[in-house]
Amino acid sequence: MTPSSTRSSSACASFRRADPRCRLEWRPSRWLQAALAALAGLAAFALLASEAPRPLAWPAALAALVHGAVLVRRERARPSFELVLRGGDGPVLVDGAPVADFRLQWRGPLAFAAWKQGDGRRRHATWWPDTLPPARRRELRLAAPPVPAARRHASMAP
């Protein structure tokens, strides 16, 4: 055996013994805040560069900047929380409380989670690459609840 095959075998063996729970902390993404600020600046620039009359363009550009600042501040103020996935069909916990109808979707390196809290309100969170490194992303994929099966009935007419 080569040294590389021994290492991979021991890594797989230690992974099998690992706890199936996945504990993740969600926090606001700095990349998202930077993107919101950049979009606000670009919106203001686009308004000023357009052929809109100047008495309308300047207040609209200022409004775009203010709105962007409000969005950045709102995102920065979102409280962090802890998500615990037990793997398979176990309950999903958010800050220690069980949640219902947990769904996880992936769009490239972005992870989108949605669930219903105990009070019936729908919540969501997005993990960006700066808040979820590749190793934790893999853990989340492995511990995520199974995707619901497709409908039993055919989706097309016979």
Description:
The chain has 158 residues and is α+β, with helices and mostly antiparallel strands. It has one domain. 43% of the residues lie in helices and 22% in strands. The protein contains four helices and seven strands. It has helices at residues 3-16, 30-49, 54-77, 134-143; strands spanning 22-26, 81-85, 93-94, 97-98, 100-107, 110-116, 122-127. Strands 1-2-3-4 form a four-stranded antiparallel β-sheet. It is elongated. Mean pLDDT is 83; it is low at 1-17.
Offer a concise description of the structure.
The chain is α+β, with helices and mostly antiparallel strands and 158 residues long. It has helices at residues 3-16, 30-49, 54-77, 134-143, and strands spanning 22-26, 81-85, 93-94, 97-98, 100-107, 110-116, 122-127. It has four helices and seven strands.
- Determine the mean pLDDT: 83
Total DSSP helices: 4
Terminal-residue CA separation: 57 Å
Kindly give the count of domains. 1
Low-pLDDT residue intervals, each spanning 5 or more residues: 1-17
SSE string, helix = H, strand = E? HEHHEEEEEEH
Biggest beta sheet summary: 4 strands, antiparallel
User: Which structural class should the secondary elements be placed in?
Assistant: alpha+beta
Radius of gyration: 22 Å
Q: Give the strand order, joined by hyphens, for the main sheet.
A: 1-2-3-4
What percent of residues are in strands?
15-25%
Number of beta strands: 7
The general outline is elongated
Helix content: 40-55%
Task: From the structure above, extract its key features.
disordered N terminus, alpha+beta, single chain, 158 residues, elongated, three-stranded antiparallel β-sheet, 4 helices, four-stranded antiparallel β-sheet
